[in-house]
């Protein structure tokens, strides 16, 4: 099967992890931003994580340079637009982009200005390319509860205008759910949907906490859900969906190989899973590439692909109208 030609749904893609290396150089020249080099191959080395990463923290170091050039309204808008263009070229029909507004305030932009700029870029991308999109606001687990509340408050103005959900991201530590419980409760009260990074780095209990305490509708990564029997059973018997990102998981040592990734095990056990890129640039991948790698490593069939695509449609935070459009592709 020609995976490139098949329609795709992307639900876990970070904006700053998917910037074009060429754009980093272009923005740096335009704005007089100091970067280590203007050699494109060397810039790729700075922003693309090797498959031999030692840990998630080493992987996250690759975001430093992208965020350095994503500090103005114009640049945020450009990066969002280009991401829709790149996803569309991979025949992605619907994408949910996530990003942390708090990482883009170095030049004085407010959270509102930051969110609005990204939405403008996405809107222009939708007008130019055959793709639909929505935005997820990430709160960083390194930030204070007060700062997380500010993100949620700033974003509520844009609910139903492109913003659809809230997320918790960054380095994972045990019991983070308790710290941000009130923040996520407030977000749900405002109308945000909820997806949470959990079980990415060996803490299965975090998946359980994300579901039971934070009422997560989707779990980012979730590979260690297998280490919590209760979490695993809930996943098997509910509509909670896992956004799996195999290349990223191999890089961060969440798994040792594509063959050992729990994707097919979860999928065959009735857990609703979907494939995502996590970061198109940092992981040097596309959704076509992720499906190709897992098809070869775990003998996934075209029927599996179709089921996963529909899992993505059903788990998306898109309107029912857009979901109906997406189902017609299959």
From TrEMBL:
GO terms for biological process: adenosine catabolic process; hypoxanthine salvage; inosine biosynthetic process; nucleotide metabolic process; purine ribonucleoside monophosphate biosynthetic process. Belongs to the metallo-dependent hydrolases superfamily. Adenosine and AMP deaminases family. Adenosine deaminase subfamily. It comes from Anaeromicrobium sediminis. Binds 1 zinc ion per subunit. NCBIfam families: aden_deam (TIGR01430). Substrate binds at residues 14, 16. Its cofactor is Zn(2+). HAMAP family: A_deaminase (MF_00540). CDD domains: ADA (cd01320). GO terms for molecular function: 2'-deoxyadenosine deaminase activity; adenosine deaminase activity; zinc ion binding. This is Adenosine deaminase. Transmembrane segments: none annotated. One of its GO terms (cellular component) is cytosol. The active site is at 200 (proton donor). Its EC number is 3.5.4.4. PANTHER family: ADENOSINE DEAMINASE. The gene is add. It holds the Pfam family A_deaminase.
